[in-house]
Amino acid sequence: MTTAPQLRNRYLQDSVNTASPAKLLVMLYDKMILDLVQGEEALRGGDREVANYKLNHAQEIVLELRTTLNVDAWDGAPRLANLYGFILTELIGANISQSPERVAGCRELLEPLRDAWREAASATAAG
């Protein structure tokens, strides 16, 4: 018998496997920002273990975005790579110093990017 969590996991895996590259990028941004929100909340609540886990996962996503970015693809790519480097440094520092404010600053930089990628993905899908 298949359980509800198994069905959910299969649905999520199928969603990832069938998503376009643009949709995958948006999914990564969504998860990264969710990690930042939850990490910030955990820091504010004094839950160091959850904060560390969420911030480390967000760092892994930033690293993935940075390493898969083709800096020769467009003229803004090197600046985006630099932003990813800055975000990574800030998240490491926020985790060490347990600073929810630094996490919030990263989230505030990344949310408009996520929204722009979502818009671009929608335009690509519609076009």
Mind explaining what this structure looks like?
It holds the Pfam family FliS. This is Flagellar protein FliS. Its main location: cytoplasm. With about 130 residues, the chain is an all-alpha fold. It has one domain (about 20-125): Up-down Bundle (Four Helix Bundle (Hemerythrin (Met), subunit A)). Helix content is about 85%, strand content about 0%. The protein is built from five helices and no strands. The protein has helices at about 5-20, 20-45, 50-70, 75-95, 100-125. The longest helix has 27 residues, at about 100-125. It is globular. It starts with a helix and ends with a helix.
Task: Please summarize what this structure is.
The chain is mostly helical.
* SSE arrangement, N to C: HHHHH
Mean pLDDT: 90
Quaternary status of these chains?
A: single chain
Main beta sheet, described?
none
Query: Can you tell me the CATH architecture?
Result: Up-down Bundle
Shape: globular
Radius of gyration over all CA atoms, rounded: 16 Å
What is the overall number of helices?
Answer: 5
- CATH fold field value: Four Helix Bundle (Hemerythrin (Met), subunit A)
Which structural class do you get from the secondary structure elements? mainly alpha
Q: What is the CATH H-level superfamily? A: Flagellar protein FliS
Instruction: Specify the CATH class.
Output: Mainly Alpha
* Helical percentage: over 70%
Spans where pLDDT lies below 50 across 5 or more residues: none
N- to C-terminal separation? 42 Å
Organism: Actinoplanes regularis
Keywords: Bacterial flagellum biogenesis, Cell projection, Chaperone, Cilium, Cytoplasm, Flagellum
InterPro entries: FliS, FliS_sf
Main location: cytoplasm
